[in-house]
Amino acid sequence: MIQKSMFNSSKRAVVSTAVVFFSGIYLTQAQETKPVKDTTSDKQIEEVVLVGSRSGGRSKADSPVPVDVFNLKDIQQSLPQTNINQILNTIAPSFTSTIQTNADGSDHSDPAQLRGLGPDQTLILINGKRRHTSALVNVNGAPGRGTVGTDLNAIPAFALSKIEVLRDGASAQYGSDAIAGVMNLQLKRDTGKLTGQLNYGGYLTNAAKDHTGNYDGQQFQVDLNYGNKIGKRGGFYNLTWSSQFRDPTRRAGTESGNIYNAYNAIEKRASENGVNLSSYFNNINNLKGTAGEQDFVNLIHQYAQGVGYFDSGFQNNIQNANSITALQALLGANYTDQELAYRGQTRKDFNMQVGQSKLNNHQLFANIEVPLNEDWKVYTFGGYSIRDGQSGGFFRRPNQSRTFTGLYLDGYLPEIHTKIQDLSLSAGVKGKWDGWNVDFSNTFGQNSFDYTIENTGNTSLRFNSPSSFRAGGLQFLQNTINLDFSKQFDVFQGLNVAFGAEQRHENFKINPGEEASYTAYDVNGNPQTATSVNPTDFFGAALAGGSQVFAGFREANRTDRNRNAYAAYADVEFNFTNWFLVDAAVRYEDYSDFGSTFNYKLASRIKLSKDLNFRFAGSTGFRAPSIHQIYYNTTSTQFVNGNLREVGTFSNDSAIAKGFGIPKLKQETSKSVSAGFAYKIPSLNLNITADAYFIRIDDRIVLTDQFSRFSNPTTDEQRLVNAEFENANVNAAQFFANSIDTETKGLDVVISHHANLGAFKLNNDFAINFNETKKVGDIHASDLLKNAGLETSYFGERSRVYLEDSVPKIKASFSNNLKWNDFNFYLRNTYYGKVYGADVVDANFDGVILPNEHQLITDKIITDLSIGYDISKNFNLTLGANNLFDIYPTRNIAASSNNDQFVYSRSTAQFGQNGRYVFSKLTVSF
């Protein structure tokens, strides 16, 4: 019933938007006494796009595949968003990216998706050259779990002139990853001027500062761009510097769980008298039955009398308990509210930091081109960025064994600090040789992700624990060599032939952290063994090893692996007539670590009139398993039901993976078809495009759920698996695996309207994306897993939600830009369809939890508004707001809120959970 209501609500929102849009067109035309040629409209529809074609570019309307073009130089001045991910999330309905929270490294590198597919299924180009991916593997619970995407936030948006988004499979043209499509980021080529922006804003919302209201998450950003000519033959250089300083937001509610127990209260009173109870034992069981036991019991008796809120009955029970065992049975009692009052604290003091992370980001990019003569030129472009991030983990409360209260009487909030460095450089020479266009280039890219854990501790080290740990990191390097040829022949109405080759080298490293960041120590400060005596808390629970919140990469995880890929392609575009175009492409690619693949694409455009084009495309595609997915491995300590649990992520060539029958990774393969049209109505200054698509992906790679050892092994295979668990010293294991097949179907519609009304210039743009991804067929589990009933661990219910239901199936935007004299008014409404949370919960509160029951997170409309004023020809001031009406997602039900810390879901991708953002932006140009 709820879903039906929301579906009707979605339809009303879309229909209402369409009515407003077309009403505006009617009113505009009613004011015009005669058709007026709109040069802006003509320029838009004839805009040349480079991505998707090797013929040197063609108009967007004439492309046989759908391409969106976003001119950042034109729109960036009006938008509140300042980085590429968030700009595209707002203006491109087929694109989804939200700021992550409490997801370790993903907090500082927002995963992005196109057409509802994975972050690693969209290829990113800069100036037409393949961009390297991030070093980070997204292993936490969020959309895109298990994937490796491209870090778009390492590229300054101010360095870009436009972004082309090819919404069609293009592996036959560009190689691996281009299943959902291709994004080509074009760097600025401006010369003879200096431009800059100063941007300041923050979140003015009732939910700021853990729902106490006011203002948080302030952001300050400065961008500078300068270009000039080189020589007199069209050479140039263009440089961009960008610095961003972002404060965190806090969107937790009020910690509602137990914080202090009776022992914590007694420990506090002892501390106030200069006695640290933790110094009297390192393993509480070793103290039992010794002469020291009675001394310790006497201390408990003494300082318990200082806890004034213990009633007489409880005090008598404590005083009559003459052993540690008897006291353990009593002192776990909850006294949170009383102890908070005594210490002058509130429950909010124990909140997590839920919201956007803190970031300092600095970027330098260059784009340079120098002609050698009339036919040849050399070029280079690239940049460097460094980003320091800080995010919080789960609060370590005093009543938990993972908190050593001998040092932290009030517990602590551990922090994950990251340093992300990104370096890229592309250089090449291009020109004409005997009628052929030739481009020879080398593109280098490297991304590193290093972790430092602060305000934390290795609990097993007790008093000897440092509070900061170097936890190691990840590094990815890619070098790509391309040689491309193309030539146009005067056959029929034009024939373009292109072919080329590519060699790509990749390297992936895991660098271990310092020993204390991952090691558990015994009571003597030595690494724990099977026979060692290990530290405990007062209640006898083991004290965890490794840095709390993020255990470092171990020496056993150290990785330094390489692979090479070689490719050759051919592409032919044949204009049989002025109205009939056929584009065919083939590509062969061979990888050193898993084999080869052959793909093809066939696309066509039929021009029924000068204003109406139909287009069709069909292709096969592939995505090679990232080198990260093949070799990523780590072991972490987790708490399950109050017990320490070692969880290993193992590579597919490990003995334990072989024991489960999990094969080595191979490429994902795809088949896709699309059909659509582009229609221009000059009398209405209206452009319409619509494209339907279907994508089938086989052997999709996912990160499995956790497998435990067999409790009662009955076969040789099961006993072998258990032996490998022992060898690896872990309790649970997870893997990357080609687990499932999926089908994605959808529809993109884009409508643009432009009008000149005297002193007024109006642009209206409406875009909507419908998409649905479903798992099809059986899970590709081994016989061992099937016989043991473990298919749901291979691809579980949470993984299904991340795949199918965590990204809106409907997303639409309607923007209006009105220019009047020196004023510019910008209004955008974005509709985000419903999604579902990943937790299995009693969503309808009927007392029954079904295995596929999830909370519905309803659809919302977000409104952006900005007003700009040209102070002079050199200065513009813009004021505005994103999420003007301070809209938030549906609140989590209690079962998913982690004691009211996650007020909103952190496992879905709609529009985030930060609320209204207000900003001011000063743009200068000289």
Architecture overview:
By secondary structure, the protein is an alpha+beta fold. The strands form 5 sheets. It has a 22-stranded antiparallel β-barrel. A hairpin with a 4-residue loop joins strand 13 and strand 14 (376-392). The chain is globular. Residues 1-46 and 639-644 have low confidence and may be disordered.
Number of strands: 36
- Evaluate the radius of gyration: 30 Å
| Contiguous helical run count | 18
Average pLDDT taken over every residue: 89
Q: Runs with pLDDT <50, length 5+?
A: 1-46, 639-644
Find the structural class using helix and strand composition. Answer: alpha+beta
Helix content: 10-25%
The fraction of residues in strands falls at 35-45%
Summarize the main sheet: 22 strands, antiparallel, barrel
Annotate the secondary structure layout:
Layout: H1 2-31, H2 39-45, E1 48-49, E2 58-59, E3 67-70, H3 72-75, H4 84-91, E4 95-97, E5 112-114, E6 122-126, E7 129-130, E8 160-166, H5 171-174, E9 181-187, E10 193-204, H6 208-211, E11 215-230, E12 235-246, H7 262-272, H8 284-287, H9 291-304, H10 312-320, H11 324-330, H12 336-343, E13 358-371, E14 376-392, E15 415-433, E16 436-454, E17 469-489, E18 495-511, E19 559-575, E20 580-591, E21 595-609, E22 612-623, H13 627-631, E23 634-640, E24 643-650, H14 655-659, E25 668-681, E26 686-703, E27 707-708, H15 716-728, E28 732-757, E29 760-776, H16 783-787, H17 791-794, H18 797-804, E30 810-820, E31 823-832, E32 835-836, E33 856-857, E34 860-870, E35 875-882, E36 917-925
Parallel strand pairs: 6-9, 24-28
Antiparallel strand pairs: 1-2, 3-8, 4-5, 6-7, 8-9, 10-11, 10-36, 11-12, 12-13, 13-14, 14-15, 15-16, 16-17, 17-18, 18-19, 19-20, 20-21, 21-22, 22-25, 23-24, 25-26, 26-28, 27-28, 28-29, 29-30, 30-31, 31-34, 32-33, 34-35, 35-36
Helix pairs in contact: 7-9
